[in-house]
Amino acid sequence: MNKAQSAAVDCDKAATLLESLTELVIRAGEAILAVDRSAMRVAGKGDGSPVTEADLAADHVIVEGLTRLAPHVSLLSEERVHLATPPYKDSFFLIDPLDGTKEFVAGRDEFTVNVALVTHGVPLLGIVGAPALGLIWRGVVGKGAERLTLRNGAVSQAVPIRTRPCPPRGASWTVAVSRSHGDARTESFIDERGGAVRAVLGSAVKFGRVAEGEVDIYPRLSPTSEWDVAAGHAVVVAAGGKVTDSNGHPLHFGLGREDFLVPEFIAWGDPAAAG
């Protein structure tokens, strides 16, 4: 969708967009929180995942804002994937207006608004907003990352964040695991390393916890969608981490993979732990 033809956006240019994009994420979060979860209608998509009026309200805020802010940059939103025109070879925005819809429907607070700017298949900028937690993790690759605390819809605190060194094998380490999407391969990966302390979390909050050094590794060795991963990918890398597949190879986004699926990934706080 919005297949604008433009020159690629580099890290320096991406950094100039960070504040405006953050404001969009804040506004999208407000739109989500304005929805009465007890009275909303929940529909099902073709893949069985839920969609609510909150997803659509956040999507509208972000897409309208991006169209005004950067009309020359293509965009792909989960809620408009039927309009997608891959491959996206230069730069494009990759959006999940409400990541963790199951968490949202269940009345929990670990859902996020994810916005990434991807250039040549690589996420350069990422913003992961958790409106019910009053937190935003954001970063630009090569420019650093930070965690924002929100109060009354405005940023009250901004703290630089870094990933942490991973403890040696056999020592206690912290792994982010999904509350809603467990799988046997991921469990095997965790068991093989030994000494794991599990942090059970929802949505892209897991990337934020890796980026700020609260979690060592976030493995997901089963398929998920590109818009679930790209923003968190950028934040973790900007904070000093690394995101790979299980063989240590880099991930790429928007280049025409079937159904925009990421077969697997591991977010490493410590790049040295990836081998």
Commentary on this structure:
- Helix content is 27%, strand content 31%.
- The protein is of the alpha+beta class.
- The chain has two domains: 11-160, Fructose-1,6-Bisphosphatase, Chain A, domain 1; 173-274, D-Maltodextrin-Binding Protein, domain 2 (3-Layer(aba) Sandwich), CATH 3.40.190.
- The chain has a seven-stranded mixed sheet, with helices on both faces. A three-stranded antiparallel sheet has the order 12-16-14, sandwiched between helices.
- A hairpin with a 2-residue loop joins strand 8 (144-151) and strand 9 (154-161).
- The longest helix is centred in the N-terminal third of the chain and has 23 residues, at 11-33.
- The radius of gyration is 17 Å and the shape is globular.
What's the SSE blueprint?
Layout: H1 11-33, E1 42-44, E2 50-52, H2 53-69, E3 74-77, E4 91-99, H3 101-105, E5 112-119, E6 122-130, E7 135-140, E8 144-151, E9 154-161, E10 173-178, H4 184-193, E11 196-201, H5 205-211, E12 217-220, E13 224-225, H6 226-238, E14 242-244, E15 261-262, E16 265-268
Parallel strand pairs: 3-4, 10-11
Antiparallel strand pairs: 1-2, 4-5, 5-6, 6-7, 7-8, 8-9, 12-16, 13-15, 14-16
Helix pairs in contact: 1-2, 5-6
Question: What descriptors fit this protein?
Answer:
275 residues; alpha+beta; Fructose-1,6-Bisphosphatase, Chain A, domain 1; D-Maltodextrin-Binding Protein, domain 2; 2 domains; seven-stranded mixed β-sheet; three-stranded antiparallel β-sheet; 6 helices; 27% helix
What order do the SSEs take from the amino end to the carboxyl end, as H and E? HEEHEEHEEEEEEHEHEEHEEE
Find the CATH topology of the largest domain.
Fructose-1,6-Bisphosphatase, Chain A, domain 1
Q: What characterizes the major β-sheet?
A: 7 strands, mixed
Write down the overall mean pLDDT.
Answer: 94
How much helix is in the residues?
25-40%
Q: CATH class of the largest domain, anyone? A: Alpha Beta
Give unreliable regions as ranges.
none
Ends apart, CA distance between termini: 38 Å
Query: What is the fourth-level CATH superfamily of the largest domain?
Result: Fructose-1,6-Bisphosphatase, subunit A, domain 1
* Estimated radius of gyration: 17 Å
Please work out how many helical segments DSSP would assign.
Answer: 6
Structural domains: how many: 2
Widest β-sheet, arrangement of strands: 3-4-5-6-7-8-9
CATH architecture of the largest domain: 2-Layer Sandwich
Count all strands and give the number.
16
